[in-house]
Design a protein that fits this description.
The chain is of the alpha/beta class. It has helices spanning about 30-40, 55-65, 80-95, 105-110, 110-120, 130-140, 225-240, 255-270; strands at about 5-10, 25, 45-50, 70-75, 100-105, 120-125, 150-155, 160, 190, 200, 205, 220-225, 245, 275. Helix content is about 30%, strand content about 20%.
Length: about 280
């Protein structure tokens, strides 16, 4: 029987400085997705956005430890990996019982080196929703988290697990991101003229191209249904009142007919939103 666990999901700060005013602060939508599936599985979740915490790394680490979590998940890119590693080591110094899992493009590309350098207990390779829920269930039963695709871990000082990236086939199965755990008024994009709150929408994952520099290269595109996307847009606009949206797909415009269908539904729904995209 699974026991309710507490997990803290962390977006690291971009530097170890006291939080300054910034032109763009992007909503950590990937953490909100992870939080949603963990809550759906019956676990307690806290999200800490390091970009919004004054006092630098020490303050963030103290905030994490104060939650007394069973598991801490930290995401990060290559640029942020030194900060992620420091946070991991600082957490272990405060409380050796706190288990840390790292995810994101850097550790997915270099999982073995990442677990050795950072001192993390687990590394998530690829997409984390199913990995994280299965890991929490194993931790709740004090069992070894074996046979989980995309999870590398230390067990009795031995490196075990799978370095095959985890990839989700049906994106419509997930609950919507746990936006209720975030301060939605804190996210904006001044360089693009967006001074009021901005949210994010992910309508697909992956890319079929193979650019050498990209973490999503060759992962294959998987689409959410238009109906599922529009239901989430309803929540963003009518429940949370946000009308600035950034599309966070790896390749939003790869299917022209699908983009046209989405835009048509947005116009017909009279959402009165602005949106930009990465493609």
């Amino acid at each position: 029987m699974n026991v309710k666990m507490k997990i803290v999901l962390v977006k690291p700060p971009s530097s170890d400085n006291v939080h300054p005013a910034k032109g763009t602060i992007r909503i950590p939508i990937s953490l909100a997705y992870l939080a949603a599936v963990c809550e759906h599985a019956g676990h307690e979740v806290v999200i800490i956005d390091g970009e919004l915490v004054d006092g630098g790394i020490e303050s963030i680490v103290r905030s994490i430890a104060a939650e007394s979590p069973n598991l801490v998940g930290i995401t990060g890119t290559t640029v942020l990996f030194p900060i992620v590693s420091r946070m991991t080591k600082d957490l272990h110094e405060i409380d050796k019982t706190i288990k840390v899992i790292l995810g994101g493009p850097h550790v997915s590309a270099m999982p073995v080196e990442s677990i050795k350098v950072s001192g993390a207990d687990y590394i998530c390779i690829g997409e984390g929703e199913e990995v994280l829920v299965r890991l929490l269930n194993a931790v709740s039963q004090s069992k070894e988290p074996d046979n989980i695709q995309g999870l590398l871990y230390l067990w009795n000082n031995a490196l075990r697990g799978s370095t095959t990236p985890a990839k989700i086939a049906d994106l419509d199965l997930f609950p919507f991101p746990a936006r209720h755990l975030l301060d939605l008024k804190a996210y904006y994009d001044l360089p693009r003229g967006i001074s009021t709150p901005q949210d994010a929408l992910v309508s697909s994952r992956g890319c079929s191209y193979r650019c050498a520099f990209c973490a999503s290269a060759g992962t294959g595109v998987r689409f959410r249904s238009i109906d599922h996307i529009m239901s989430e847009l309803d929540e963003i606009v009518f429940k949370y009142g946000t009308r600035n949206i950034i599309m966070m797909d790896d390749t939003f415009t790869i299917n022209k007919e699908r983009v046209n269908a989405f835009c048509k539904r947005v116009i017909e729904g009279e959402y009165n939103i602005t949106f930009n995209m990465q493609t």
